[in-house]
Amino acid sequence: MNIILLGPPGAGKGTQAQRLVEERNMVQLSTGDMLRAARTSGTEMGNMVAGVMDRGELVTDEIVIGLIREQLEADNGADGYIFDGFPRTLAQADALGNLLLEMGENLDCVIELQVNDEVLVERIVGRAKDAAAAGEPVRADDNEESLKIRLMAYYKQTSPLIGYYYANDDLKSVDGLASMDEVAASISDALA
Ligand code: ADP
User: Fold this and answer.
1) From the CA of 38, how far away is ligand 1's center (Å)?
2) Is 64 in the pocket of ligand 1 (CB under 6 A)?
3) Which one of 49, 71, 85, 178 has the fewest CB atoms closer than 10 angstroms to its CB?
4) Is 59 in the pocket of ligand 1 (CB under 6 A)?
5) Which of 111, 79, 136, 109 is nearest to 12 (CA)?
6) Which residues are catalytic?
7) Backbone φ, ψ for residue 110 (5° rounding)
8) Which residue has the least CA distance to atom 10 on ligand 1?
């Protein structure tokens, strides 16, 4: 089974993806994590995308599609892939459809995590404050200014995917404001 977790920054995609990995022997493909890893290891691509990410803008389709293609070609999909933070544009959605088709795979479900903007801003700014107080590293894009840009990128470039997948009969919407366990249960129902 291959699924996409779709939703704005702070909606809980990463948390829910982790649970699916533990419970279902699936592999999480997070383009955000891949890009952060590229930055940490100081690759040319990592250095190139750093400023764009810190501002909260989207990295080019070419780069993220390349990252996903590499992972799919490595073919360690176990019992399926959870795409987390990808696709984020219509071009990425088309590319993913083609990659899966080439592999003889299907996209089984797109789960939209629905949340409201005020909660997102509180969650992300709160997450940054908690990390700072605990002496942990704070993501450079977890500040109010970058967050507004990330939200704008979501509404302008990513939210059209909700209609795209709805029209494709793949979309299931889940209330992302419920507790972590309740969201996980709703996702399980949607996948049943
Ligand atoms: P969040 O969902 O919390 O905003 P992510 O970890 O998914 O964060 O992504 C962090 C940043 O990485 C994004 O703001 C963007 O700059 C870049 N990024 C991640 N995935 C993509 C993608 N699919 N397309 C373009 N840029 C991406």
Assistant:
1) 13
2) yes
3) 178
4) yes
5) 111
6) 13, 88, 127, 139, 150
7) -115, 120
8) 32
Query: 């107080």: which residue's tokens?
Result: 133
Per-residue tokens: 163: 């209609």
For residues 79 and 26, the answer to whether their CB atoms sit within 8 Å is: yes
Please tell me if the CB atom of residue 154 comes closer than 6 angstroms to any atom of ligand 1. Answer: no
In testing the pocket of ligand 1, which one of 16, 31, 156 has its CB within 8 Å of the most ligand atoms?
A: 31
Can you tell me the distance from the alpha carbon of 47 to that of 50, in angstroms, rounded to the nearest whole number? 5
68 close to 14: Cβ distance less than 8 angstroms = no
Return per-residue pLDDT of the chain as tens, 192 residues: 999 999 999 899 999 999 999 999 899 999 999 999 999 999 999 999 999 999 999 999 999 999 999 999 997 777 899 999 999 999 999 999 999 999 999 999 999 999 998 888 888 888 889 999 999 988 889 888 998 999 999 999 999 999 999 998 889 999 999 999 999 999 999 999
- Where do we find the tokens 């629905």? 114
Tell me: cis bond preceding 87? Omega within 30 of 0 counts.
yes
